[in-house]
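An example makes the point: we print one protein in full, the chain in one-letter code, the fold tokenised, without further comment:
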Amino acid sequence: MEFLRSLKKEDILDLFSHGFCFHCQTLLHSRITTLRKRKLDETCSSEEGFESSGDHVVEMPFNVSNSESLSKRNDKQWDSPNNCSQRRDSATSKDDEKRVFGCSSPGNLVGCKQSDFEILLNDGICEGSSFKNGLSDERKERIRYSLVCRKDFTFVERINRRHINVLQGLELHTEVFNELEQRKIVEWIYRLQWRGQQGKLKDRTYSEPRKWMRGKGRVTIQFGCCYNYAVNKSGNPPGIMRDEEVDPIPPVFKHIIKRMVRWNIVPSSCIPDSCIVNIYEEGDCIPPHIDHHDFVRPFYTVSFLSECKILFGSNLQVVSAGEFAGPTSISLPVGSVFVLNGNGADIAKHCIPSVSSKRISITFRKMQPSKLPYKFSPDPDLVGIKPLVFSSLNKSDKAQDEVRNLNIQQQHKADSVESESDIVWNTKKASQWKI
């Protein structure tokens, strides 16, 4: 015990990140679960380590087998130099955290800005904020929606003697999910990964292939349908396997879909009914491909943990294992939604070279009606979602109005300062001529 007391937190986490025999793992799990429950009672936290998933409670063990511990992952995720933009403002003290955020445990706040809590939305992705800022739910959503930036792309290639913008139809929407929301979603995904490792998900939902070469072996979790990437042992071609069953879309992912529809990223006519989670370790990749037409266009990818580049082009080359070459690339920031449609989805191939750090993505897609699994039934939670409409003004008009109002206020301040300086100057001039 004296030896353990002498170790630093990082050393202890490393010690408990490695595999144990079944007996020791069960015993350790039981002891840590008991300890965590006691800590939860002491800190009034209702989130840490336990999460509701449908009609059952998902209990996360401290040790996730065959991978880093969840705590160590989160430390890396929010404190690494590669994610410096996700660090908490150092000016905010721990006392301020307790004062502002009530009894949330400090572990849940690392890497999150105070503003994330001030305008936290009550849409199911995170718990409601206790920060009393006087803003209505509509006002908070309006502020968050106004922060989202959309970017389109152009890259012209000569194909069949014609000049074509092969990136037509691609859109990047940034700032859709803030740091706190990203963290909560990632925690959910780790819980789902653990459930898959424990055999608590359906057989075809969770896949963790053996990593037999660089770039091969990323973890995938499929919901809504089972997609076959290549001709399998039974001779089934790539595409949706209609006779296979997977788990339905989890609640938190449905909240993500609802936000994307409400914020005019996903059209209400193409609401996704399936999704796939990709969990990349360092060195994992996705080779050049065009997504199967068993899925309707557009489809959408949300990025977490680390930024990465996605390559596009009508002719992408494989340089070596996990390394590819293409004429153009797009960076996918964390918390962003990338929309693939048009030429960008059907003419240009795309790929993700070996990632330099851990990454998670969720790709949402709608299945072709003729390719739906035989036992598929529409999710009532995803029916009838409507886009957000504040008024007749569109988003860009509102942004321009806000900028115009800000400029007017600044001009008024400048005029006021100028008037004061004129008064001082005239007073000085008058005093000079006094006898």
Residues 43-108, 406-410, 416-435 have pLDDT under 50 and may be disordered.
